[in-house]
Design goal:
seven-stranded antiparallel sheet, Alpha-D-Glucose-1,6-Bisphosphate, Chain A, domain 4, 28% helix, 166 residues, single chain, globular
Amino acid sequence: MNLVALAPNAFAARTTNVSRHTLWTLVSDPTLLPQFSDELQAVRVLGDGPMAVGQTFEGDQKRGEREWMTLSTVTGLIEGEFFEWTVGDLATPVSKWSFLLDDNEAGVTLAHRATLCGGPSPMSGIIAADPLGAPALIQQRLDMFRERLAVTVEGLIALAGGDILG
């Protein structure tokens, strides 16, 4: 059984007239993501060369008064189609994020997914202090993710000069 598939997740997708190649150059560059996020402030790719499985990058996060740094590892990459990164330790990840590009009759669909994996994070302490409140907190976080994922997808399409078709 794939436990990540059962983990709490959020998803957003839009179809566009932008080519898959053009979108790929954007979704496979994590340094572009802060412009679409209230929380992610900056991204620094560690190492040289094109994105590949195993490549790492740091993210500066800020939510309210809290600031923290995350380390992400590219954990899935199919050129022109799929880009995934895992936040935190690979054995106990905080979350997984991915983009998927799909050609279809309507155009190209860009999907963005975030999955909470339960690894150590700023949210861990809050959940430990109030385990009965955890479901509501997780749902609130997923609702925020869903909104931000849509903003990111729409922002990447706009950055590529495309239109949202659906």
